Structure prediction request, 237 residues.
Amino acid sequence: MISELGCKKSKQASVLLLCRHGETSHNKNGILQGQLDTALNDTGLRQAQRLGARLLKRKLEMPLSNTAYSSDLGRAAVTGRIVLEALGSDALIVCDARLRERHLGPFQGLSEAQASEVHSTKWVRFISGREAEGVETTPQVVQRAVAALTEIADKNLGRTVLVFSHGGFIHCALSTLTPGRVPHIANCSISELRFFRTGQSTSWTAAERGEGDHVPSGSSSAGKNVDVPVGVPGSNG
Prediction:
């Protein structure tokens, strides 16, 4: 006879530290990036160094994984490399297109004012939460975010994992996987997700959302520094 204790399924866990990339010139100038492959500006490079310094001082409940994950867009991957260098880590960075920002179609490369003028009908649909031609929908972002983060968490049970991504993606992941208000996700802020698996059952909690005390004040205001528009479902505002 198998004892009741022997039948119990053990709970396993992992911690994901979701880090938004450093500032780009498009961020600074209020230009919608979406999946445009833009580079960090000088402020963004400094922010990434500060993020690395903050993580170096962070007390981890679980050891750091020897694999980090990043969006395949340069601004996220470069942030990751700078952070790992600051940590003195030789961890491998795995780039995954599922960690990209929301694709904004015809709005990419435009300011919100320009998008509303040039693509007025699509823009109205978009900001009201309806489908707009050429723009990735919120359910599509949710689907790839949940799939990617669950896969990463499952592969790294018992570990803390660094994940470098984007404001809209992180906002969408937090609001989907955990209850509670999600703040503006500033450049190089940290959001901590905790993943739990018991047999086939999984759950998530958020221990931290958009913590950015290490980022210089005023360098990433919610009203100007955007990846996707403030107020749009799945946005970083």
In short: The longest helix spans residues 138-155. DSSP finds eight helices and six strands in the chain. Residues 1-7, 220-225, 233-237 have pLDDT under 50 and may be disordered.
